[in-house]
Design brief:
The protein contains 14 helices and 31 strands. The protein is an alpha/beta fold. It folds into two domains: about 280 residues, Purple Acid Phosphatase, chain A, domain 2 (4-Layer Sandwich), CATH 3.60.21; about 180 residues, 5'-nucleotidase,  domain 2, CATH 3.90.780. Helix 2 runs antiparallel to helix 8, helix 3 packs antiparallel against helix 8 and helix 10 packs antiparallel against helix 14.
């Protein structure tokens, strides 16, 4: 009887020990997009330098001294946004970004849609070259049963057994070039997540979904599954200043461009999250930050990039401000120059391919590479006037109902009306003249619009597409350099809602 009582007491002490809440901190970032150096913060009155791997390394080192039991996760879109993404490091383009994340102590990241930007072969090389796990449970080669990259990362921190499952969006076709996605199959995020949650549940205390889907899709995912505890998300560039809770699951996201570090503090007990508090830490670069492995690499890359791309090539008279659902002065200027250069009737560029804005004043090559970060080729094709009527209706819907991003245009104007949830094209003109249905018009655009996403943006599929071999950023740098005097933009919209 004495031995039995001792055994009971021993079991009770063990259970009590394991039921006591244990602390864990999850550091998280997402949508870095190549922004590896600190940049002036336009939202601050002092325009202090914010972001970059030097600042990230500094704050992580400081925070880890107080929270040694921690995990650092990145939710994807490490690529595209800076020339560093197209520089070879350790045999792979963009490899320096992987190395800087490694030097900051990242444990795992998930695939984002911009990891596909340099094609399927590069994606495979990028995953293979990564010094840390890149996760995506629901992406696989066609006809393959297993995921292309790792599906799950398992680790223990402070006695907490953690399973991390990587996931990307169910339907990436609107965010990834078709040629890059063609070799792969994308499975349902919800069903894939549930499969791995069920496998991990008995062997873990905490299940984290590391997703690149957007905060709305994360919320929908949370409603479809059970057994997960945390979603660390990306894709929508959402600055969640505190955690969301949907169906009992904590959802966090840290904005974009490495300007903030998410700090999620957890208490875990009894296979559940007892408490969770997420905050965003602004990564303001301190004066004279201590040198770190990450800062040494970042500084050397910045020097190289400034040497190659820091040359001033022109001067802006007005600020360039990009849009998404509506035209912009920068989109007008780009399309005007493309139409003239290629002697086309119409020039079209997707507004989503123009990233950010530029202030008035000197413009460098680096400014343009960051404004036009995608390696899109210029292409030429012909279209009948009847095709352009279809295109006009598609663009009216895109802008009027915000169904997707609009196209910037030159040589063409479209007037439309909007009633409730419908749009109607009122007038379409090419170079000031009404479109003739049977007439053939010469169009210049980028391959992403004309080939990868034609049905989405144009409403029809062009034939006999001629590839010029010119990259849009190179062309625009050349056009700016050849502009005499200040660069002046036409602010007038070409896609217009009328009464």
């Amino acid at each position: 009887m004495k031995h039995f009582l001792c055994a009971v007491l021993l079991m009770a002490s063990v259970v009590g020990c394991h039921s006591k809440p244990r602390e864990l901190v999850i550091f998280h970032t997402n949508d870095i997009h190549g922004h590896f150096m600190a940049e002036p913060a336009d939202w601050r009155k002092d325009h202090a330098l914010v972001g970059g791997f030097t600042a990230l390394s500094y704050y992580l080192d400081s925070l880890r001294r107080g929270s040694p039991e921690s995990l650092y996760l990145d939710a994807g879109d490490l690529m595209t946004g800076n020339p560093v993404c197209n520089m070879e490091y350790e045999g792979v383009l963009g490899g320096a970004l992987l190395e800087m994340l490694k030097r900051c102590g990242v444990h795992a990241m998930c695939l984002g849609n911009h990891e596909f930007d340099l094609g399927a072969d590069h994606l495979r090389d990028f995953i293979a070259a990564s010094p840390f796990p890149i996760l995506c449970a629901n992406l696989r080669e066609k006809n393959a049963a297993h995921s292309l990259s790792g599906a799950v990362y398992r680790v223990e921190r402070n006695g907490i057994r953690i399973g991390v499952i990587g996931l990307m969006m169910d339907n990436p076709w609107g965010s990834v070039a078709r040629a890059a996605l063609q070799p792969f199959a994308v499975d349902s995020a919800a069903s894939t997540a549930q499969k791995y949650i069920d496998q991990l549940d008995s062997a873990t205390d905490l299940i984290v979904l590391l997703t690149h889907m957007g905060v709305e899709e994360d919320s929908l995912l949370a409603m479809k599954i059970h057994g997960a505890d945390i979603i660390v998300g990306g894709h929508s560039h959402t600055r969640l200043t505190e955690e969301m809770r949907v169906n009992g699951i904590v959802i966090v996201q840290a904005g974009s461009y490495l300007k903030n570090l998410g700090v999620l503090r957890l208490q875990v007990a009894g296979d559940s999250v007892v408490s969770a508090k997420d905050t965003l830490l602004e990564l303001m670069l301190p004066p004279n930050p201590p040198q770190s492995d990450a800062s040494v690499l970042a500084d050397s890359l910045e020097l190289l990039i400034q040497t190659q791309y820091g040359k001033i090539i022109g001067d802006l008279e007005q600020a360039w401000k990009a849009g998404y659902y509506e035209g912009s002065n920068v989109g007008n200027w780009i399309c005007d120059r493309l139409r003239e250069r290629y002697r086309a009737d119409v020039a079209l560029v997707n507004a989503g391919g123009i990233r950010g804005s530029l202030n008035p004043g000197p413009v460098s090559k680096l400014d343009i590479l960051e404004l036009l970060p995608f390696t899109n080729n210029m292409v030429l094709f012909e279209a009948k006037g009847s095709d352009l009527f279809i295109f006009a209706a598609e663009q009216a819907t895109a802008q009027g109902l915000h169904e997707h991003g609009a196209l910037e245009m030159s040589g063409m104007t479209v007037d439309y009306s909007k009633t409730n949830e419908t749009t109607k094209v009122v007038d379409v003109k090419i170079n000031g003249k009404s479109v003739v249905p049977d007439k053939i018009y010469r169009i210049v655009s980028v391959d992403y619009v004309a080939q990868s996403q034609a049905e989405r943006y144009l409403g029809f599929n062009p034939v006999d597409i001629q590839t010029t071999g010119d990259i849009i950023s190179d062309v625009i740098m050349d056009e700016i350099a050849n502009t005499k005097g200040p660069v002046r933009s036409d602010p007038n919209p070409r896609l217009r809602e009328v009464q």
